[in-house]
Amino acid sequence: MTMQSEKSSARSAEGSAFRRGRRRGCSFCSDESLTIDYKDPQALRYFITERGKIVPRRISGTCAKHQRELTLAIKRARNIALLPFTASG
User: Fold this and answer.
1) Of 64, 61, 55, 57, nearest to 23 (Cα)?
2) How confident is the model at residue 11 (pLDDT cuts 50, 70, 90)?
3) How confident is the model at residue 72 (pLDDT cuts 50, 70, 90)?
4) Domains of the chain: residue spans and CATH
5) What is the DSSP letter of 24?
6) Contact, 19 vs 55, CB < 8 A?
7) What angle do CA 77, 80, 84 make, to 5 degrees?
């Protein structure tokens, strides 16, 4: 019983020392020249993991609107074989 309370108090002490960095804005909102296009697989590869999964918003830093556009562009590029569905290997 005392072991659990000691562990939880240690975690809370560590958690308060952890500081999250400043959240950056959406790169597509800040730079109007950037566009999301399914015909540009090199740009879309930045938003895909090594396993072929789409990177979530909290990691990529995009806003909800551009994340939806990005997801749609990646899915279209996969359908016409510009991007892989899974990791090759």
Assistant:
1) 61
2) low
3) very high
4) 26-89 (4.10.640.10)
5) P
6) no
7) 60
